[in-house]
From TrEMBL, chain A:
<dbReference type="GO" id="GO:0043565">
    <property type="term" value="F:sequence-specific DNA binding"/>
</dbReference>
<dbReference type="GO" id="GO:0042795">
    <property type="term" value="P:snRNA transcription by RNA polymerase II"/>
</dbReference>
<dbReference type="InterPro" id="IPR019188">
    <property type="entry name" value="SNAPC1"/>
</dbReference>
<feature type="compositionally biased region" description="Basic and acidic residues">
    <location>
        <begin position="239"/>
        <end position="251"/>
    </location>
</feature>
<dbReference type="GO" id="GO:0019185">
    <property type="term" value="C:snRNA-activating protein complex"/>
</dbReference>
<dbReference type="GO" id="GO:0042796">
    <property type="term" value="P:snRNA transcription by RNA polymerase III"/>
</dbReference>
<feature type="region of interest" description="Disordered">
    <location>
        <begin position="278"/>
        <end position="344"/>
    </location>
</feature>
<protein>
    <submittedName>
        <fullName>SNPC1 protein</fullName>
    </submittedName>
</protein>
<dbReference type="Pfam" id="PF09808">
    <property type="entry name" value="SNAPC1"/>
</dbReference>
Automatic annotation (TrEMBL), chain B:
<dbReference type="GO" id="GO:0042796">
    <property type="term" value="P:snRNA transcription by RNA polymerase III"/>
</dbReference>
<comment type="similarity">
    <text>Belongs to the SNAPC3/SRD2 family.</text>
</comment>
<keyword id="KW-0805">Transcription regulation</keyword>
<dbReference type="GO" id="GO:0000978">
    <property type="term" value="F:RNA polymerase II cis-regulatory region sequence-specific DNA binding"/>
</dbReference>
<protein>
    <recommendedName>
        <fullName>snRNA-activating protein complex subunit 3</fullName>
    </recommendedName>
</protein>
<keyword id="KW-0804">Transcription</keyword>
<dbReference type="GO" id="GO:0001046">
    <property type="term" value="F:core promoter sequence-specific DNA binding"/>
</dbReference>
<dbReference type="GO" id="GO:0005634">
    <property type="term" value="C:nucleus"/>
</dbReference>
<dbReference type="InterPro" id="IPR022042">
    <property type="entry name" value="snRNA-activating_su3"/>
</dbReference>
Length: 344, 307
């Protein structure tokens, strides 16, 4: 299915903010939700058929974040997001959330985890969804449609949302450690039983390090902490790098932008009346209508006016744009491609 | 109280996108809406859209009158896409299909009865000399055999004595040489329900009737029945999506759907030529009913008849 434009970005932004808040409390999520007034995501005049389709796609997108391999916090955030979207939807009867059979045991495990770690608000939210019959239990996660697509859109995960793949942890789990502990104790006891002194094993029988299980546990914990610290450092570094970049690029772009605006206005005046939305593969270069910007820069820079006055058309275009700004700016403005920050 | 946290505080019109929204989705949607407002003069649901929406939702939430027809919990609901046989060239690229919902406990014969195909209604024979005697028997009554093919097994319709095993030819062909197909079996359609089958989602299967009219069937979804679905067993298999085909109109009046087609007609401007009943008789027969000119005439059933 073709995606809802902009929805993935909005959801990821909300989940990212939730992750940064470093909590799993529903109140926090609700604050973030209300800040963004996320319930308006279904607004916009559309007829029932289109609204049904849109809501289905929205729920499907949000549902993806609810499943592994996303980290625990993101999954809780996705649960809250699903709850919010399900209740905020405008379709009557409500569109449901599709859960595939293969994912259901994972979700049950997740619910058990929530109860064990006493995140009762999240468990309550999940229970509310179940009671409201919000789920469709399906065989396959995605509903198939038959439209020839120009390109198969690759679904990529945001790296920060994923749990760092912890091979060491998946090998040395709590269960394994417990087993080892038991076996170790049993072994020690056996040694005591067969040696002369019943309370202590024979010296000749001490072939292994006594506290090796404890050491193993400490090592795995250390490794996990190290990995988390590394992720945090990496994330912080990237953020500071990004903000620095933003400031630098901002000033550069402004002068470049107005020059380019003039060039575009010269070439494409009169033939452009609509905005062309960038395709998904070029989402970093979003096309924005900035009629006011080009208009003001045309008028403001007197040094450049010599260039522009040579060709009367763009100056007029600039003037017109400024006037038109007050009335309906959208469709008269020239499309200007601004370089948006490319992360990842 | 948790619900209150989500909803809007004051009266908001969901049709209006708020001005100061910082959601990217809404900004893009607003631009699209504004562009539509300029280019489209009258923004109203066309009849295709109304039909699609109606078909999708007309049965939601229905409950049966008699409690024996109520569908129980745990029933499976399958969504099948049944493709039309390719009659027109333009259908080769975007194959039109109809979507049907069936219950897991329903037998295959119920699905077979619910598939409406134009080839079932064909009337065979040339009737230029006796136009009033076009027989009442349509092909559906004459050729009752049909089969489904799922996962290597042919399910033949054997309810009537006239039904033949159409799949036998295929099985014999595959067994005659080592063609690489595992042993294909043939069983009776009426003994099996959908719950007994093992199926792949998205894999094309076949429905064949009339000997040579083939439809591809693809299963797009299997899920458990839900409280909000239509729970009246008698309404299943339920048609929820249908492709709209334009009907061919009479060449003369351009108003009525064509009922006759003529070949090698000295009185007609093109070959083949389509006529509605009235125009056909007025052109080809005189007041006494004598045949005028040379032509061959066949009764015609338009594929758009199911609109």
């Amino acid at each position: 299915m073709s995606a809802v434009p902009g929805l993935k970005e909005d959801c990821e932004e909300l989940l990212g903010a939730f992750q940064q808040a470093d909590t799993v409390r529903f109140e926090r999520f609700a604050e973030l939700w209300r800040e963004r007034r996320f319930h308006t995501v279904f607004y916009g005049r559309m007829r029932a058929l289109e609204r049904n389709k849109l809501t289905k796609k929205t729920l499907e997108l949000a549902q993806q974040y609810f499943l592994p391999p996303y980290s625990f916090q993101i999954r809780v955030g996705a649960l809250y997001l699903l709850y919010g979207l399900y209740n905020a939807q405008l379709c009557q009867p409500k569109q449901k959330i599709r859960i595939a059979l293969k994912d259901w045991p994972e979700i049950q495990k997740f619910q058990q985890d929530l109860l064990d770690s006493q995140h009762y608000d999240a468990a309550y939210i999940f229970r509310r969804l179940r009671l409201a019959r919000a789920f469709h239990f399906t065989a396959m996660p995605k509903l198939l449609t038959y439209r020839t697509k120009k390109k198969i859109e690759e679904n990529y995960f945001k790296e920060e949302f994923k749990d760092p793949s912890n091979r060491v942890n998946s090998l040395i789990t709590n269960d394994v450690l417990e087993e080892l502990m038991n076996i170790h104790d049993h072994y020690q006891k056996m040694k005591c039983v067969i040696s002369a002194n019943k309370s202590q094993p024979d010296k000749a029988l001490s072939l292994i390090k006594d506290d090796f299980v404890v050491n193993l546990k400490d090592m795995t914990l250390e490794h996990q902490e190290w990995q988390q610290n590394r992720m945090k450092l990496f994330r912080n570094a990237k953020e500071t790098h990004e903000t620095e970049n933003k400031k630098k690029e901002g000033t550069l772009l402004e002068s470049e932008g107005s020059e380019r605006a003039n060039a575009l206005a010269r070439i494409k005046y009169r033939s452009y009346s609509a905005v062309v939305e960038a395709s998904k593969s070029r989402r970093h270069r979003q096309v924005q209508l900035e009629s006011s910007e080009s208009g003001s820069s045309c008028g403001k820079s007197p040094s450049r006016s010599k260039k522009t006055s040579r060709r009367p058309q763009p100056a007029r275009g600039g003037g017109e744009m400024q006037v038109a700004k007050e009335t309906v700016t959208r469709h008269i403005g020239m499309p200007i491609i601004t370089e948006e920050n490319s992360d990842e | 109280s948790i619900d209150m946290l989500m909803s809007s505080e004051k009266e908001e019109d969901p049709d209006v996108i708020p001005e100061d929204s910082n959601l990217l989705t809404l900004r893009i949607r607003k631009k699209n809406l504004e562009r539509r407002e300029e280019t489209i003069i009258v923004d109203r649901a066309c009849r295709q859209e109304t039909l699609t929406y109606e078909m999708e939702s007309h049965a939601t939430g229905k409950r049966p009158d008699s409690p024996t027809d109520l569908i129980e919990e745990g029933e499976l609901l399958l969504t099948l896409n049944i493709f039309y046989p390719v009659i027109f060239q333009k259908h080769k690229d975007h194959k039109p299909y109809q979507t049907v919902l069936v219950l897991g406990s329903q037998k295959l014969t119920e699905l077979r009865d619910s598939i409406s195909c134009v080839s079932d209604l064909q009337i065979g024979g040339e009737f230029s000399s006796q136009p009033d005697q076009a027989p009442e028997h349509i092909s559906k009554d004459l050729y009752k055999s049909a089969f489904f093919y799922f996962e290597g097994i042919f399910y033949n319709d054997k309810r009537y004595p006239e039904c033949r095993d159409l799949s036998r030819t295929i099985i014999e062909w595959s067994e005659s040489h080592d063609r690489g197909y595992e042993n294909l079996q043939s069983v009776k359609m009426e003994d099996y329900a959908f719950n007994d089958l093992s199926l792949k989602i998205g894999f094309p299967y076949l429905y064949c009737h009339q000997g040579n009219c083939e439809h591809i069937i693809i299963i797009t979804d299997i899920r458990l029945i839900h409280h909000d679905d239509c729970l009246d067993r008698t309404l299943y298999p339920l048609l929820i999506k249908k492709h709209w085909l334009c009907t061919r109109k009479c060449f003369v009046c351009k108003m009525y759907t064509a009922r006759w087609v003529t070949n090698r007609d000295s009185l007609a401007p093109e070959d083949p030529c389509f006529f509605c009943d009235v125009c056909f008789r007025m052109l080809h027969y005189d007041a006494e009913g004598n045949k005028l000119g040379e032509f061959l005439a066949y009764p015609y059933v338009d594929p758009g008849i199911f609109n």
